[in-house]
């Protein structure tokens, strides 16, 4: 069968709007790689990506030494990327902030790991993400034990972050929003960032239930928004857990369709959190399976086309720059 040619890339909307991409990864895992040059090819889409936040993803861990120190290999790798990007004076300040991993279930004993990461990259290291997704269904990927957010040792580990002025990125599913709300209320001095709008699930037992899940998700989001120490990243729909068929589509899905699907979720978040606690994210290369880099930023811009200049500046750049303390 003759393969249809790929459609031309979308023309960027509002190409001069400064963007901080506050959530992307770089990795080498098994036979997969997505490194600095790959990210730069994606950011070279016509949008003005001025900076980025590089987030932990389980890459480059040290293979020796105590288990709790092995994630330092990832931080070491990220720090080298930040230095490389800075020395090359790229148009995009890649890894302007770094979010690493530490086992927060260590409680107070996590402190030496945090100090080691800060020493590795004092100019860029800004926070920790300990992956905490959990679902009872075995076909849904879980990255942590059930109810970990309520675990006393885990909470002591999260509390340690405030001492070092570090943020806490939270990756959970929509079924766990109530647990994160309780954590945020218990630790109001810790700046938390909810990744991927709490990843509303659309696969397994959640397939075909979008209206029902939206109601549960929106109720949880409204409660979480009452926590002043929580910000939220708007994105993550390209992951296969969302249950859309975009990864199978040829030609690739366009920004008009993406905007129509995502708008109800993002507009609700913006209404509840306000623009000063919301930031658009690419979540590349995870979402790369479903759509192109330039296309998703066009979708975000379509959703906000009637917002004011200041509101858009916050959503696309200023909130991320403030939360992650970018220079």
Question: How is the secondary structure organized here?
Answer:
Elements: E1 18-24, E2 27-29, E3 32-34, H1 36-43, E4 48-55, H2 72-87, E5 93-100, H3 111-120, E6 125-129, H4 152-163, E7 167-170, H5 177-186, E8 192-194, H6 210-224, E9 230-234, H7 255-273, E10 278-280, H8 293-303, H9 309-323
Entry keywords:
327 residues, alpha/beta, TIM Barrel, two-stranded antiparallel sheet, 10 strands, disordered N terminus
What does this structure look like?
- The protein has 327 residues and is of the alpha/beta class.
- The protein has a single domain, classed as TIM Barrel, CATH 3.20.20.
- The chain is 35% helix and 15% strand.
- The protein has 9 helices and 10 strands.
- The strands form 2 sheets. The chain has an 8-stranded parallel β-sheet. Strands 2-3 form a two-stranded antiparallel ribbon.
- Strand 4, helix 2 and strand 5 form a beta-alpha-beta unit.
- The protein starts with 17 loop residues before the first strand and ends with a helix.
- The N terminus is likely disordered.
Low-pLDDT regions: 1-6
Number of strands: 10
* Percent range for β-strand residues: 5-15%
The CATH architecture would be Alpha-Beta Barrel
User: Rounded to an integer, what's the Rg over CA atoms?
Assistant: 19 Å
Distance between the termini: 52 Å
